[in-house]
Amino acid sequence: MDIKKEHWSPLLLDWFAAHGRDLPWRDESPRDPYKVWVSEIMLQQTKVETVRPYYDGWMDHFPTIPALAAASQDEVLRQWQGLGYYSRARNLHEAVQEVQVKYGGHVPENKKDVQSLKGVGDYTAGAILSLAYGQKEAAVDGNVLRIFARLYDIEENILSTPGKKKITALVEEQLPDEAPGTFNEALMDLGAMVCIPKHPRCPDCPLQGLCLAHRAGKECDLPIRLVKKKSPVEEITVVVVRHGDQWLVHRRPPKGLLASMWEFPNALGKGKEGIAAVRQLLAQKGLTLAADDQPVGSLKSVFSHKTWQMTVYEGCITQGKIGEEEDWQWIDCKDYASLPWAGPHGKITAMV
After folding, report:
1. Which enzyme class (predicted)?
2. Can you list the pairs that 161-170 forms with residues at least 24 positions away whose Cβ atoms lie under 8 Å?
């Protein structure tokens, strides 16, 4: 069989039928799009075994879209507590509320509409549409990129746009007309259980006889994941200071990086050290800061000469008031778009 010409999905599907993982979000047929959506958001940057109890607890509290849409943000965050990357929960909550209002509580079946929902990217949209609605849509994540790079002996950088496009096209060629969602899940499990990073378990792979990298003895050398030359990394702690529906913001100096643009209070440092630095910064303005000890999220911003690794917390002022200073202001959260945000700080507004 020539892998470049043949449709090999039946081999993968037979393997999946015998070896696929028993996961709580797979216990229904047909699949509930809401449950697919929740599981995929939870699985972003989080291991399956970590997600299991959170998923079960979530479904106990928010079994349906109307239940989640009606919940308060505090209720949502309490259920997410400990899972990390809290922006996922906030985005999911907001997107579900949009689905409730705009689509009558029915997750849209149109790719464009699904992708327009907050926090839903190409992969999540493909998973929802294929798993819940049986649509012939690819769901390409890191596991899939790795599998196809080995199967087809792809020596391009899988993190590059051309590399991703090439593999996505190959996945679309293999997607079966029947049960494309099952095919996508089979790839997920193959990548998690067999075609793992560094040392793939080739003897257990149903596609071993087809794998071009295995034939060439290159399965441990692929995929190629080239990253740009590393620049100095600065750990920065950002605190989003709230007062009701207002945020405390600061204008950067008139010269230098992101000159005169607006940002949330921040300082160099990580964890307790970083929070202490922000507290000291605000103390110079006569303000006393109380900050949460758990971050709401993180992001990385790469400049030509440095990288900011930013950890975001939330907090409030317990004492003191801002004086008549143009460079420090309270703004209404709803007016955030009126400010020229300093690069990554604009993304933080979506996080909180």
Report:
1. hydrolase
2. 164/140, 167/140, 168/138, 168/140
Q: What is the CATH number of the domain that holds 160?
A: 1.10.340.30
What does residue 122 show for φ and ψ, rounded to 5 degrees?
-60, -45
The helix/strand/coil state of 154 is coil
42 inside domain: yes
Number of domains in the chain: 2
Give the domain extent around 261: 233-351
CA distances 179 to 11, 23, 132, 159, Å, are 14, 18, 10, 28
**Residues belonging to the active site:** 40
Q: Is the dihedral of CA 162, 163, 166, 169 positive or negative?
A: negative
How far apart, in whole angstroms, are the C-alpha atoms of residue 312 and residue 298? Answer: 6
**Same domain, yes or no: 154 and 269:** no
Give pLDDT tens digits for 283-300. 999 999 999 999 999 999
Does 140 map to a domain?
yes
State which H helix or E strand residue 309 sits in.
strand 307-319
pLDDT tens column, 64-113: 999 999 998 778 877 887 786 777 888 999 999 999 999 999 999 999 99
